Amino acid sequence: MSTQGSAGFVIVEAEYKGDVVKFKLPFSSGVKELREELSRRLPIYNTWFKVKYTDESGKWILLTCDNDLEFCKETLLASSRNKVVKMLVQHQPEFDEYHPLGYQFEASFNHGMNPFVYVTYRHFVSALVLLPFAYFIERKIRPKLTLALFLEIFVLSLLGVSLTLNMYFTSLEYTSPTLLACMVNTIASLTFILAVILRMEIVNIRSPRGIAKVLGTGVSLAGVMTMTLYKGPALKNIGHALVHIGGGSSVIHEHWLKGSLLTIASCVTWSIWYIMQAYTLKRYPAQLSLATWMNFVGAVQSAVFTVIVEHRKAAWTIGFNIDLWSTLYGGVVISGIITFIQLWCTEAKGPVFVTMFNPLSTLLVAILSYFALGEKLYIGSILGGVIVIMGLYLLLWGKEHDEAQIKLKENEDPKTLIFSSDENNLKGEP
């Protein structure tokens, strides 16, 4: 790539599987425009690909974002040697089919949207959508918001929105999607362990239902591992894909330790978030209002973080394209409707019950991608999904009489927060 800064453009020389192209790219262009031009000129055919360039020492440097491209340009302009750098385009394996990330978000990130900006906008949208419903529907039941309660919501927003999601998306840059999918699906097991430690779930191992809860959690975890680590033969596609997602910029960096730590940290904070919801709902039993506050405070927190790490004004611009639709979908459906449903279920059944259904989303994503996107569906995902469902049914059977035990405990001590499977204290139970 030879630069002509005074002329306002760069001359890109790129190679892909032996094919070489040269073209002019405006100097103000970012990675999004570069990738679109490469896709148009090279025989990539909308497959996933990554781009590298050579630095002064001849090392290949991965080009993943606008900051990388700006650094490349600055290095070339400051170099005293002939300002020519070769770019190499390589095929990138497709995004892991078991990844829990929604395909609409995947397409948006491929389109060049900053994940941190997405998190911010998504939760602002959710807060605006939920606000009128929360204000009118829960006007009579909403408790007074004290300073202590607001600080609790602030921490909830940090754990469930700004800190966790930004760590999650950052870890995508450093680890494989397989590791991320595996770790995210262990949130149910982590939540169960934390609930037992905090005595929110009292499991009597001498009771059949108590044993079923422990066994169900372990079986579900085994199913998660099966879905993630074992593929097996692929099923034959039954037709053409209904929807196609173009090539993306998802790349795997070689900072495995950093990415693994971020992934583990995000899973732990997510589990703590589910646990903390149950405590907060006891003092603030207004699910719509709580969801609105969490989304608004989380969006503000994420906005502050994004301003610190992302200095380009262009990153905050959203056009009338997939970026807008994915933001609206994420705000209205995921951060809005789904968060409200989760809060309602958490108050009624406890955090362990809610998180045990999370691994099913992985199976649903695999099935959806098979029929709608024409991707391969492996026997491992079906087998693992069946195992997860078996474990889920074991857990549900173990928690069948929890409601009676909860009412008994709360009658004894109204301040007690417990989701128990110890049946021996129930009248009429063996």
Helix content: 55-70%
Q: How many alpha or pi helices?
A: 15
Helix-strand pattern: EEEHEEHEHHHHHHHHHHHHH
| Structural class category | alpha+beta
Radius of gyration: 25 Å
Mean pLDDT: 76
Query: Domains counted in the coordinates: how many?
Result: 2
Query: Beta fraction of the residues?
Result: 5-15%
**Mass-distribution shape:** globular
Model description:
With 430 residues, this protein is α+β, with helices and mostly antiparallel strands. The protein has 2 domains: 2-91, Ubiquitin-like (UB roll) (Roll), CATH 3.10.20; 103-425, no CATH class. The chain contains 15 helices and 6 strands. It has helices at 31-41, 66-78, 103-110, 115-137, 147-171, 177-184, 187-197, 208-229, 256-283, 287-309, 322-349, 351-355, 358-372, 379-398, 402-412; strands at residues 2-4, 9-16, 19-26, 49-54, 60-63, 87-91. Strands 1, 2, 3, 4, 5 and 6 form a 6-stranded mixed beta sheet that branches. A hairpin with a 4-residue loop joins strand 1 and strand 2. The longest helix is centred in the middle third of the chain and has 28 residues, at 256-283. The chain is globular and about 70 Å long. The protein starts with a strand and ends in an 18-residue tail after the last helix. Mean pLDDT is 76; it is low at 1-6, 93-101, 245-254 and 418-430.
